[in-house]
Each structure stands twice: as C-alpha cells, then as structure tokens.
Amino acid sequence: MLEHTLAAPVEAWVKSFRHHLNLPVAIVLPSGQSLALGDFEQPRLAIRVRSWKSLPLLLSPSVDHLATAYVEGELDLDGTLDDIIELGYAFALAENPVPGTSFQPGHVRHTRELDREAIRFHYNVSNRFYAQWLDRDMVYSCAYFAHGNETLEEAQHAKIRHILTKIRLQPGQTLLDIGCGWGALVRLAAREFGARCVGITLSEAQYEHAVERVRQEGLQRQVEIRLQDYRDVDGRFDRLTSVGMFEHVGLSNLVDYFGTLNRLLADGGLALNHGITTTSAASDGTAGGGGDFIEKYVFPHGELPHISLVLRTLQEGGLEPIDVESLRRHYAVTLAAWASRFEAAREAIRQEVDEKTWRIWRLYLAGCAYAFRTDKVSIFQVLCQKAGQDAATLAWSRDYMYRGR
C-alpha cells in the first residue's frame, strides 16, 4: 500500500524536475521502477532508493540530504565518482542554489574540551586509515603544485618548504607549529632549516605517530611534540605556523585566536596562517547544506570565515597581514589526488573501517575536491607580523618566496 501511495507523487515530481533541469540521472525506486530525470539514453548516475521511507530526502534535495541518505545506507549511488559528485551536486542544488546552512556559525562555545573532542572525532579514526591515501609523510593539508605536474609527495614537500621559506626561517630560530598533525612540518623545519621546533596537537593518534617519527629521524634535540591546546602554550617563538587548524577555532573566537598568536610571537617574528575559508561574504556556510553534512559526520563544530573576516579579526588581534595567497586550485588538485588514492585503496580501507565510515570519507574527499574546483570554498595562506612594526622589516618583493623553484 505504501508503495502505491508514494509512487504517484514521485512520478509527478520527476516530471516537473525533468522539465526545468534535465539531468542524466535516474531514480530507481524500491520496486525496481526507474524514473529518468532527463532526456538521455543512458543515465550517468543512478540513485537507488533502498527504502520508501527515504523518499522525502529526495523530494526536498540538498547536499546534506543526499549525502546523509547515502552514508546511512538508505540509498546507493551508482556511477563514476566524478559523476556521483558533479551530478549529485547539480541534483541537490537544483532547488537550493544559494549558500546557507541550518548550522548557525558563531553560536558554538569552543571550550578546550569541546575542541579536543572534535579533533579526536576527526583524527583518531586510525593512523592506518589515513596512511592508505595520504603521502608518505602523512601531510593532511593543501599541497603546493608549483608547476602542476608534481606527484602528491613532491607537492606536499614543496608546500612545507613554501611555508618555511615565506616565514624566512633561519637556523637556530624557534618555531611553534599549531596543529602539527603527524609532524611533517616540524621535522622538515629541523632537518632542512636547522630550526628548534615545538609541534602541538590535540589528537593522541597524531601525537604518538609524530613522536615516533621524530625519534626515528634522530631529531629529539630539535623537535618537541606536545599534546596541548594552543591556548595553553607559554613563551615566545621567532616563527609561528598554523596549517589547517583555525577552521576549528570558531568565528566568535577568531580575535582571541589571533591575539594568542600575537602573544606567542616574538618581536620581529613572522607567523603564517594556512586555512580554509568560505566564499560566502557573510561567513554563513556553504551552498546546499554541504556544511551540515560535514558538521554531522566529519568536522564537528567547524566554522569557515570569509577571507575578509580573517583579515579583519587578524588585525583586531594585533597582527598585520603582509602577504595573502590563494591556494584554491592547489587544494582542488590535492583533494582529487586523495580521492583517487582512496578509491584505489578501497578494499584495504574497507577492512580498516566500517561501511558507514568508508561512505562518509568517500563522499567527503571527492565532494571537497569539487567544492574547491567550483569556488564553493577557498583556502588562503596569510603571512603576518606584529602590528605597528617599522616598514623596513618587510621584504621588498615576493621574489624570495620562489627562489630555487
């Protein structure tokens, strides 16, 4: 009876949808009936509904609804990964093309405990899981493709060198890396630049791996890894880096975050913040509910500011931005490489994690690649120093950042 009750309105909705959008997509109902959303001989994407109860998610499409139904096993998506993402976005955004999310930015009180639990949720899946699709050094942030034909390993190494060159790191200087991940940046800074480094993380899994890699490379005298919140660090450092971390800070905490960087930065020092931003000038989320999906399944309590808000709050925190570089194209390529590796290692990954986790990350990586490629999100490196310093301390040009490339 439920089947007959729902089939008719679904057919009517599909007819209306075809009229104004015309996509190479088919919806396959639990009964086996296939309804085409466009005038094409063969659909590139088949949305196979496994239960009549999940149909309301399709009748009010959004990125969040479609991705949630897939992750929870209420429907299957048949097609190449590229088609799943591209056509899934087109389908999901058909009736909700503008930015917006039900998650209200700035309404989360980012306590130490809340932030620690969010980091654990994301990074403590397992080191073996991440090792299946990251590069050898386990760098989990946007790579830097100077020419576009580099391998992922080469581009990640180049990204770290690009950051350390930007901050003009010198032998013997002290460096604090906030959100050090598995320790690749501090190890390279010590090994190739002769710096004395402290790396901090809130993830026990990352901490254990980073400590072991430091020991294996004999860098214990130059590198210290701490399980510590950035707000609890004391002292002054010649150089600061924060790569892929400030997305966890919270919009209402950005001034305090940059104020903490200001407190930790020595006079005459340089700091670099590398982080994802929204392309919504109002800093109110991403199109079609993608942020809602990430909030639920991937990054709890993450909030993305627009670059304009980053620069304003950075200045209010006592820092002066002296160089801003967009790496959006680089992150699209990085994420596409991760998604490709993830697909190639699918059998090994599915032995490491459950089906739901595999589905979450499969959509997340490929979906983020598409989002960066199509300007739904962006990413910037912002080089800064303490506000009010003499202009004579600034480099004459950006040439020094690219020497030897």
From TrEMBL:
GO terms for molecular function: cyclopropane-fatty-acyl-phospholipid synthase activity. Gene3D superfamilies: Vaccinia Virus protein VP39. Signal peptide: none annotated. Keywords: Lipid metabolism, Methyltransferase, S-adenosyl-L-methionine, Transferase. It is an enzyme of class 2 (transferase). InterPro entries: CFA/CMAS, CMAS, DUF7884, SAM-dependent_MTases_sf. The active site is at C368. Its EC number is 2.1.1.79. SUPFAM superfamilies: S-adenosyl-L-methionine-dependent methyltransferases. Residues 13-90 form the DUF7884 domain. Pfam families: CMAS (PF02353), DUF7884 (PF25371). One of its GO terms (biological process) is lipid biosynthetic process. Belongs to the CFA/CMAS family. This is Cyclopropane-fatty-acyl-phospholipid synthase. The lineage of its organism: Bacteria, Pseudomonadati, Pseudomonadota, Betaproteobacteria, Neisseriales.
